Amino acid sequence: METNHITQIVLNALSLTNESRPSTHQIPLTDTTVLFGQNGHLDSMALVALLMDIEDALQEQSIDVSLSDEKAMSMSRSPFKDIPSISQYIHDVIAAQA
Amino acid sequence: MRIDFLKAKMREAGAADAVAIGENCISYQVLSERLDYWQAYLQNSAIPAGAVVSIKGDYSADAIALFLALADYKAIIIPLSNDSATQFDEFSEIGQVEYEFVAVDNEYQLNATQTKADHVIYQQIRQKGTPGLVLFSSGSTGKSKAIVHDLEALLAKFTVPRNTMRTVLFLQFDHIGGINTLLYTLANQGMAIIPENRRPITVCKAIETHKGEVLPTSPTFLNLLLLSGAAHESDLSTLKLVTYGTEPMPASTLEAMNKHFPQIRMLQTYGLSEVGILRSKSRDSDSLWVKVGGEDYQTKIVDGKLCIKSKSAMLGYLNAPSPFDEDGYMNTGDQVEQDGEWIRILGRESEIINVGGEKVYPAEVESVVLQLDGVEDVAVYSLKHPITGMTVAAEIKITTGESLREFKVRLRNHCAKLIPAFKVPSKITLIDQYTHNARFKRMRKRTA
């Protein structure tokens, strides 16, 4: 799957997150926005929900993957830091499964 | 024999209606005659006293008469209703069934299985010379356990006279609640109303037709009753009391019941197949606080969990170790909150979802989800997750035709106003089927 396409799925999932958040807590959809980690917009609960939303969106395209296995948690550079890193991580997970 | 007491009560009631199945009413006299028939049948059969005998089939005059005749004959009875038809073989094997009565076109056929029932608990019952009863737990929180009761001891509490009521027999006689309602009704010369099925409209029509006064049921069924509109299409003015148990009541369902049916008293009951049904008192019709106990029961709370000691407790499990402590208390596994003599049942310890160290009770989340328009049914359960240990997942049946994405937004915005973020379901699955089992209890066990 193209990285662009994956990034679009991540952006869609983030806009779903935004739709359930008050206007004061909207997440800017830019490459430099920190999602998870120090000064991140998401706490662990919100990250779990986001990953599940992305999994649901991938499943709609018949791609069945788990984005939150032990491996992701122990990577030295968190794959959940920002939109580019999440997109790259999803790309790698799908590629590894293919 | 306590069954003699029951027989005397039944004969005395004569032409009064004992059982209504669909439109058909059976009088106490006819039921007594069927009991005579089955007693004679057993006397002339090859079945020895103390034999393990199953009755496969749903309620009928004959099923009830046969049950009582077997009790009088001091058999060990395993009632198997069609609710558990898929587990008949498993249950028959665990229960070491020696003889089985199978309902075929309203007639019972007797089969001998060539099994020898030699379980140590069965030997105890035979030595005491009392009838036995084996019930299976529903397996909603694990593997089904075979629970053996001394039926004579179970019957004891029904010798105290109580109100004569027309009661819906909602649960089958392979469930402690069904047995309890049946024996209570017969012992007090009341009428047992057996709906042809447990669809809300059928149950409501049965109440209307037979002027039902009491409906013992589960919160899940009450929720369906409200949503289906069946209650408004039927005349339920005779209904005085609704009792609910078997699972925690969502506050939203209780509130809706009180709003729609202010004349009906809502009473929470508390029972377990292992210890029987406790007498209970709700603080108010709209309260989830309850006092449980009664003459034959003692309770204590250990580590927040309710423990019960009962005079009519089971003798033991056939396929699991004894759950009683040295003082005879059984830990129910139900986590409760306490306020003096009142308790509030939060849910089963095994169903608690631990999200990053925070406890979530499925019933509380279900209650919030059920408040949303268009939500027909929901089951909340735990999903393992490497980030938070566990996370809250929900299977939801909706009637709005929304997409998963549309529904998620609505659900999350609703939940955000009412519960902390860690309780909001992160995994949401829209489903087509209801989440409850044949006994109208939500099934929350999922294979992750």
Short description:
Chain A is mostly helical and about 100 residues long. Chain A contains four helices and no strands. Helix content of chain A is about 55%, strand content about 0%.
Description:
Chain A has 98 residues and is mainly alpha-helical. Chain A has one domain. Chain A has helices at residues 3-19, 44-60, 70-74, 83-97. In chain A, helix 1 (3-19) packs across helix 2 (44-60) and helix 1 crosses helix 4 (83-97). The N and C termini of chain A lie close together (10 Å). The mean pLDDT of chain A is 89. Chain B has 448 residues and is α/β, with parallel strands linked by helices. Among the domains of chain B are: 2-155, Rossmann fold (3-Layer(aba) Sandwich); 352-430, ANL, C-terminal domain (GMP Synthetase, Chain A, domain 3). In chain B, 30% of the residues lie in helices and 31% in strands. Chain B contains 13 helices and 26 strands. Chain B has helices at residues 2-13, 28-43, 61-72, 88-94, 120-128, 151-156, 176-187, 200-210, 219-228, 230-233, 251-260, 362-370, 404-418; strands at 17-21, 24-27, 52-56, 76-80, 99-104, 107-112, 132-136, 146-150, 166-168, 191-194, 214-217, 241-244, 265-268, 270-272, 276-282, 289-293, 297-302, 305-310, 316-317, 330-339, 342-348, 353-355, 358-360, 375-385, 389-398, 427-430. In chain B, helix 1 crosses helix 2 (28-43), helix 2 packs across helix 3 (61-72) and helix 9 packs across helix 11. The relative contact order of chain B is 0.09. The mean pLDDT of chain B is 90. The A-B interface holds A 16, 19-20, 43-49, 51-53, 56, 68-70, 72-73 and B 355-356, 385-388, 391, 404-405, 408-409, 412-413, 416, 421-422, 424, 426-427.
Looking at this protein, list some descriptive labels.
heterodimer; A: 98 residues; mainly alpha; B: 448 residues; alpha/beta; Rossmann fold; GMP Synthetase, Chain A, domain 3; seven-stranded mixed β-sheet; 13 helices; 26 strands; globular
